[in-house]
Amino acid sequence: MPVLDLSYPLNTETDIYSEAGYSDPSLTIAPWCEISDQGYRVSQLSLGTQTGTHIDAPAHFDPEGQTLESLTPDALIGSYTLIDLRKGRCDIPPKADPILLLDARNGATMTQFDLNTLFALNSPVWVMAGYIEIQDTPSLEFHRQIAAAGIFLVEDLNMTSVDGSFPKTGEIIALPLRLEGTSGSPCRVLLRYI
Questions:
Q1: Which of 6, 130, 158, 182 is buried deepest, with most CB atoms within 10 A?
Q2: d(CA 44, CA 32)
Q3: Contact 65, 59 (CB under 8 A)
């Protein structure tokens, strides 16, 4: 079964989120010790929880939201339901797999009604390619609402290995670091064809 790696490599060229007056922590990878000195090599990492391809726990936008450890690993591995938002409409099935794969490459705008319909599918993990805005709402309102709904969002996917559309059926594997008490984590995201 072919596997696509949807994760960005973490290196000195990794894009770091910033806006007017704010920037996420920078990513630094520095030598800590060398084989010539210690007999082994260790690097020191410094980065933010939302660096590169990552998962947002509800606590990222909701002060009462769940932190990363409340999501069990089995929720991060499984079949997905593809929601293609690239055509300017939102075709939502009557039921869905535990993982929603939202294809919003080049950006998408959805109505509040469509977002509420997605909430009714009760999928605890959403994986988003691109970005989504809700019609007639402020920036990041999509993120705020899914956090308030208790949904975990995997985002900032590396789409260089995806040629054309996502496969209609497949499996997502999204593995964050096993952090506790955090609003998210960088993660490795794989898509496996079924």
A1: 6
A2: 6
A3: yes
